[in-house]
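Hey, resending since the last one bounced:
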Amino acid sequence: MEQVELRLKGHVDTRWSDWLGGLAFNHTAEGETVLTGTVCDQSALLGIINKLPDLGIRLLSVKTAKIDNIKDNERGEQSVRLSKISQVEG
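The structure tokens again:
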């Protein structure tokens, strides 16, 4: 699993959320849309990115962080840790 943040030019209508992998939408005062959420792997992320031109949307940046599941030995519970943060700007 990976935590992702896609920064897009313009305010994208939230009705596209399901089509764009169910990511959460946040509209900024700078006229951008920030999509955040998790994807199962890089191919899922690429699938979302490849849909953007169909909507006439310009991708400004991508940030990803790998999510590692760690078991807590004392309680047997799982916790989540982010590692390997990557950023690409275009």
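Residues 2-89 form a domain with the Alpha-Beta Plaits fold (CATH 3.30.70).

Sorry for the duplicate.
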